[in-house]
Write a structure and sequence with these properties.
The protein is an alpha/beta fold and 237 residues long. The protein has helices at residues 3-15, 22-29, 34-45, 111-121, 160-177, 185-197, 202-212, 221-225; strands spanning 59-67, 85-94, 97-106, 127-130, 145-148, 233-235. It has two domains: 3-51 and 182-235, no CATH class; 59-163, Ribonuclease H-like superfamily/Ribonuclease H (Nucleotidyltransferase, domain 5), CATH 3.30.420. A hairpin with a 2-residue loop joins strand 2 and strand 3 (97-106).
């Protein structure tokens, strides 16, 4: 594939606000095979994470949600079935708005999983807002100013920023890609976080994507196809 086509693909992927499916990219680039466009997209997604990224700071909201599968028949809010993936989200509070976001796929909502995620993405000493789930109880021992909230204590929507990000993620996955596989979900989280964190400057996102490609080793199609969802991974740059 000519290098000019790769530059054009990176530009389209980084600057097209809603994201771009493989079908759209194939059409835009005039590619003959859908598999080529799909592979190019996945290679670009794997370059969307900055290995030198800084942790979230200040006040941060953290919450989790199930992505994919069916909601019918679940007995409790954190009960998982085999068709669902548990995604945890951390969002910086910036006034009434949201700052940077980090996302991760975790195996369960235990204290080890949630505490490990927060330790990886949030600066020690930061204020962390969560709901009252017991899995967050150990955050104070990990060095955070943990401030659990309950709906009964607050009239406004609980963890509004985190809920808004989760809602936007689900809408984006269904609207742009009509759902994704569990095996590839982490790289779609990479793309969503990349777009969210650079939503104010599409051209800056394009330049950043070109730069980040130099920080990652090459990825083969076989590696992409063979990818299995890890128990825990973090997205966001």
């Amino acid at each position: 594939m000519p290098l000019t086509v790769w530059f054009w693909a990176a530009y389209l992927v980084a600057t097209h606000g809603p994201g771009m499916s493989a079908v759209q990219l194939q059409r835009q680039l005039g590619l003959r095979r859908h598999e080529t466009a799909w592979t190019m997209l996945h290679k670009l997604r794997r370059a969307m994470v900055n290995p030198l990224r800084e942790p979230l700071t200040g006040e941060v909201e953290v919450d989790e949600a199930f992505v994919g599968g069916r909601d019918e028949g679940r007995r409790g809010g954190r009960q998982k079935d085999g068709t669902l993936s548990l995604v945890v989200v951390a969002v910086e509070c910036r006034g009434e708005g949201s700052g940077r976001v980090r996302m991760g796929v975790i195996g369960d909502a235990s204290g080890d999983s949630l505490g490990g995620f927060v330790s990886d993405v949030v600066e020690s000493g930061a204020v962390v807002h969560t709901d009252g789930w017991k899995g967050y109880n150990r955050l104070s021992k990990l060095g955070y100013d943990h401030r659990p909230l309950s709906q009964a204590q607050h009239d406004e929507m609980l963890l509004a920023r985190a809920h808004r990000v989760i809602s936007n993620l689900k809408t984006w996955l269904q609207g742009t890609y009509h759902g994704v596989s569990r095996e590839q979900l982490p790289v779609y989280l990479d793309e969503f976080a990349f777009r969210h964190n650079r939503r104010g400057g599409p051209m800056a996102a394009f330049r950043t994507l070109l730069g980040l490609t130099t920080h990652h080793p090459p990825t083969t199609r076989r590696q992409i196809v063979d990818t299995a969802t890890p128990t825990y991974s973090v997205s966001g740059s």
